[in-house]
Design a protein that fits this description.
It is a single chain. The chain is mainly alpha-helical and 174 residues long. It contains 8 helices and 5 strands. The protein has a 3-stranded antiparallel beta sheet with strand order 1-3-2. It has a two-stranded antiparallel ribbon with strand order 4-5. Strand 4 and strand 5 form a beta hairpin. Helix 4 packs across helix 5. The radius of gyration is 25 Å and the shape is flat. This is Transcriptional regulator.
Length: 174
């Protein structure tokens, strides 16, 4: 590795370890977050396809219908979704975002937009586009890599520190 690629790896690793970066892109379990991750997924789904049945939601999210019912109950209790009888089939209840639900999602989108603007404020539009292009290429390189040999070597190195294999015999290194 060249010194530049080493520095790139350290910098990317530093980003991943930076608590502010992690708070920005990682899972949010802090007290400011008032809605469970599953509820947020459901709300985003309803924002895209408003008016889905519990069965449709369960199938799309790949969860049990009873789990969806629990999420819908919590969102309905907070006034974020409504249950509406299907006009074509009264046996089916559709779940729709309320105005409050749409407003809540929009406020979260606005917060995310503000945060991303602040994080990248020191970069020109051209620099942002270049950074995005380069990070996508690095991400593709990582996706295309086969880490099997690398992991095998790590395991072998670790085992080799503790054991030695000679002519079919195993010797413990102390």
């Amino acid at each position: 590795m060249s010194e530049v690629t080493n520095e790139l790896m350290r910098t990317i690793g530093g980003l991943a370890k930076n608590p502010n970066f992690y708070l920005m892109v990682g899972p949010r379990h802090d007290s400011r977050r008032s809605h469970h991750r599953g509820q947020a997924r459901l709300m985003r789904l309803l924002d895209k396809y408003d008016g889905l049945s519990v069965g449709e939601i369960a199938e799309i999210l790949d969860v049990r219908p009873s789990s969806v019912t629990g999420l819908v109950d919590k969102l309905a209790d907070n006034g974020l979704v409504d249950r509406i009888p299907d006009e074509r089939d009264k046996r089916i209840t559709l779940i729709k975002l309320t105005k409050k639900g749409h407003d809540f999602l929009q406020s979260k989108k606005d917060e995310a937009d503000d945060l991303s603007e602040e994080v990248f404020a020191g970069l020109t539009d051209e620099e942002q586009a270049t950074l995005l292009h380069l990070l996508k290429r690095v991400s593709k390189n990582l996706s295309d890599m086969d880490f099997g040999d690398y992991i095998s070597q790590m395991v072998n190195d670790s085992i080799g520190r503790h054991f030695r294999f000679d002519d079919g015999d195993i010797h413990i290194n102390l």
